[in-house]
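Hey,

The postdoc asked me to send both predictions to you directly instead of through the lab channel. I've kept everything plain text so nothing gets mangled by the mail client. Protein one:
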Amino acid sequence: MTPSDRRSSAPIVRAEGVTKAFPGVVALDGVDFEVHAGEVHVLLGENGAGKSTLIRLLAGAHRPDRGRIVVDGRPVRVHGAQDAERLGIATIHQEFHLVPDLTVAENLFLGRPPRRFGLVDRARMEADAADLLARVGVDVSPRARLRELGVARRQMVEIAKALSVRARVLVMDEPTAVLTGGEVERLFAIVRRLRADGVGVVFITHKLEEVAELGDRVTVLRDGRSVARVPAGTDRDELVRLMVGRSIEAQYPRERGPVDADGPPLLRVRGLRRAGAFDGVGFEVRGGEVVGLAGLVGAGRTEVVRAVFGADAYDHGSVHVRGAPLPRHDVAASLAAGVGFVPEDRKGQGLVLGASVGENLGLVTLRRASRGGLVDRAGQRRAAAAMAARLGVRMAGLDQPARTLSGGNQQKVAIGKWLLAGSRLLILDEPTRGVDVGAKVEIYRLVNELTAAGHGVLMVSSDLPEVLGMSDRVLVMCRGRLAGELAGDAATQDAVMALAVGSARPADLAR
């Protein structure tokens, strides 16, 4: 039976005319949406369009102000995750619903561990966890503490957790945002098996190439309203136009200018090593260039840039900024040297979620704006307002808590505080994760502004087209080591992947 055949029957879940408002914003305005058995229904829209609010209604995290949720033809009230699971709805949220201090197995079966004689059967729990982890293809011990894992592996744990519920409807919010090729293919294979088994899948993505590859049909939200329902094979440019209300000419608008070849580089890394994480890493970033850092998940990319910035320690090697040595494991020294860092985990490390937008934008410049122990709050607020306008942050106002912004707008704020600080070297780790196509282009143009002003950018990304489209040179890591450097015509997807998996050497690629 094809997906279109299945849609001739009643949907499993339907949202009918749902409206949801928050202070200062109507997130959803009379939206209809439905999911049938055995289909992948893609949900597209810019950040702030209402996608996350809609799936939170399905998951029971919010309740509609108007409209209703219907399951198997009858209206229901979903008061939380347990209600949703009883109805057969499981959700993988963009922000992880995991407990860092618990083990992987404990997270997978949180609130519902297997029991024996009234006690938690830890051996069975860990065995079942191992089976789930093997199913999603992630090599992680069930006994590992979640906080020991990087963002990509946490994402795979979140996916495994959703699969353990045996849902009839699986909602996936940006599941591939931090995954690279192999992980994405494993995930897609899982989704196709679920679809064949009659599970309805709601799939949210900002990677438009995934829509036709995996989806059956698409609903597009814009400004809280459903503006179109189209086949998944719809032309990509048309999908962009439906999402943003206009055409976008260039997906990766890199404007390459002169690179500062005189004097010391902005950043010089030599022989960087931390046991068990990376070894012998060395490279340079000069003013006016974007250097991409590519590699598979677990290759050591994030570990290296965190060590360079001083967030984590390293055992051997050196880091110089504009010719001056940078003390190891010293964030304050990095800030003073003009180095900024946007981490991959914006919610846990890039923002103070309970603080306002204005307060977050002013975090790095707070000391500079202080005189005699007093902060120039009016000046800070003016600067924050100007930066928010420059970045196009969609918000009710500067006093809105950062936690209530959409993912893409949170990312703009996380970047904006470093732009306000005037960082000469900006390290971006997954800068467009969870960011819609229009906001991505805005971030890329900011990168162009930085390099045009003589600043340098070191960019880590799991999105290989992004790395190739926005980098002047690409460094590729494999198993904790720098496998090679590619520039110009040599920087292709095949060449990067050959280095990333250890099947080629730079000399091979130059032939």
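Protein two:
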Amino acid sequence: MEGTRIKRASFYELVRSFEKSLGYKNDIKWTSFIAITLYHILGVYWCYHYAFPVKWPTLVFAAIMYVASGFGITGGAHRYWTHKAYKAKLPLKLFLMVCFASAGQNSIKQWVRDHRIHHKFSDTEADPHNANRGLFFSHIGWLMMKKNDEVLQAGKQIDMSDIENDVHLQIFEKYFNYIKLVFCYILPTTIGIWLWGEDWRCSVAWQCFIRFLTMFHSELTVNSLAHAYGYKPYNRNIIPAENRFVATCTLGEGWHNYHHAFPFDYKAAEHFDFLNFGTWFIQFFEKIGWAYDLRQATPGMINSIAKRLGDGTPVHFPTSECVE
């Protein structure tokens, strides 16, 4: 027994020394590391054996859930709760909560705090997913590690009073794990089984693994790929860049150089890209009266910033005004 403990301690010391040799400042969060790793391994195994044959309604419903869960993140946690880019009436708030729960993310409070830290201390040691630590860390590695001291101290500087004082969010946060279990896993899986007789194993494959993990990694590309590849028409002095691939798979979140220049803009982009589903949905909810006070940068503001700080890449406006 004693020998086993010594071996285990030696293993952990070896891992920590390896981390330090790479310049890592975070300890591995073993519960998260093991859970994330095993979930991916199980997903590959399960989908290899049970994803096919599949009925066409299952594919359509998986696509619908992909868009809905994505909007819960982009239109909800990101543009609405983090940046307050628009205001929402109660029906839309409840809809955003359900969509966010279906994405299987951390709680809205955790999500908002991490993202506000990211904007305030972007790509520094205080950034939870600092892109200077490499693609793996900024993509998913940061979720497998404990936050370093700089991130923890930065978190104490973030004003979260709007989130903490929101009565609806307080209730949502209290029961979040149960709500997430229902709307991310149980309901999406069982709907296909009940309504069109999909095999339960196939339904699990498409909802719990393919749909969930595809959206999960799509959203993570904003932290990794959009901080590594692309052009910078608005601010050449920051790492975030415009990345069409990321914009496509996240349904509108890849215009990242613009977003960091104008984080308050509800579009998170300077133009109305046809794949920017978050923007289209917010505009739809404005038309039916559920969303209002949509904030956006004017062409004059965009033009001025692009001229002073941009890398010279042409920018595109919904009007005829452009950078000369």
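Summary for protein two, as requested: Residues 56-82 form the longest helix (27 residues).

Thanks,
C.
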